[in-house]
Amino acid sequence: MIYLDSAATTVQKPPGVAAAVSRAIRTMATPGRGGHQAAHLAAETAFRCRQEAAALFHVEDPEQVVFTFNATHGLNIAIRSLIKPGGRVLISGFEHNAVTRPLAALGAEIRTAAGPLFQPDRFLEELDSALVHWTPDAVICTHVSNVFGYVLPMDQVAGRCGARGIPLIVDASQSAGTLPVDLQGWGAAFVAMPGHKGLFGPQGTGLLLCSGESQPLLYGGTGSQSLLQEMPEFLPDRLEAGTQNIAGIAGLLEGLHYVRRTGTSRILARERKLMRRLVGALSSVPDAEIFAAASEQDQTGVLSLRLRGMDCETAGDQLARRHIAVRTGLHCAPLAHGSAGTLQSGTIRLSLSPFNTEQEIDLAVRAVSALQ
Fold first, then answer.
1. What is the pLDDT of residues 94-149, one digit of tens each?
2. What's the pTM value of the predicted model, to 2 decimals?
3. Cβ(169)–Cβ(139) under 8 Å?
4. Which of 147, 187, 308, 336 has the fewest Cβ atoms within 10 angstroms?
5. Same domain, 177 and 290
6. How many Å apart are CA 334 and CA 113, to the nearest integer?
7. Where a domain ends, among 227, 262, 297?
8. What CA–CA distance (Å, rounded) separates 306 from 347?
């Protein structure tokens, strides 16, 4: 199988990830739930994972790194911490349902800044216009669109929020492990990310980087302050109720090790090299409409396309029969499709990993060319 669906989950992972998961299942218990060696080993592993994440994402204190089940879990915590029912929120036009559905559940008043696809200057103009005439309780912005790989200008977004004292929530689901993510530099209240994408960890893992006031989403045991019937006031315990996925955390630690050893700049350069090859080859396919940025600085290793005369789901099924793994449809982000004009059709999404090869790209393009 040629796997081109890493924007959903990375399947090719560093070998140490699976080994760490296996070792944790055999040797580790739960942090804070015992004074024995298995509990101590688990606690040490969890803290080392926080330390690794803090170093990679510029978090002052490792205890500001909270373990979540996925990015959606983290975004729900962040949103519930900052937004009251009926509150005001400004979002980008490329947000995932992990943002828009929690806001809808709160009955939030939402305004959107979008601009045309791959035009960050126009996006910033819309953002500025909205902030001049309206003061939201928070700004929520995806760093990279999961549909188009569009890199939004997060440094400028953060600067505008900081100048106005508006809390910022960043969805780093498609950027963590590929682009620089900087909690302190952005002054963000929260940055949410999954473990199972660019950090090469197992499914069921995620991180929430916290610098703002937080409210628990789940309530229960933490292994600390057990006499209290309220959640502890301190992080990470305040946001981590119940038994942790320590095997997943052990695997995530190995994924973080890989990213730090390799460097996000090298990972990004590899993905962009493969992307240039992919876009160049697909440009020769007569019926392909490719959503590629004019400047590669505005896009990561995620590419959407449509084939004239063929619906996306049919194309995806035919590619799967040819052992090419892609994703088709709306990708849980109808707002992004609405901003880009692809809501009615959806897209075929090919998303790369540094473990893909040039030969795989060539074979995948041949398969797309043969669709009928």
1. 999 999 999 999 999 999 999 999 999 999 999 999 999 899 999 999 999 999 99
2. 0.97
3. yes
4. 308
5. no
6. 15
7. 262
8. 5
